[in-house]
Amino acid sequence: MIRHFNFNRKYIITVIIILVLIWSAVGTEFNPLLFRDLGNTVDFIKKSFLRPEWSILPIVIKESITTIQIAIMGTFLAIFIALPLSFLAAFNTTPNLFLFNLTRSFLSFLRSVPEVVFALIFVPTVSLGPFAGVLALTIHNIGVLGKMISEIIEAADIGPQEAVKSTGADNYAVIIYGILPQIVPIILSNAFYRLEVSVRSSLVLGLVGAGGIGQLLSIHFRIFQYNKVAVDVIVIMIMVVIIDYLGGYIRQRVI
Question: Measured at the alpha carbon of residue 130, what is the angle toward residues 228 and 150, in degrees to the nearest 5?
Answer without folding.
Answer: 120
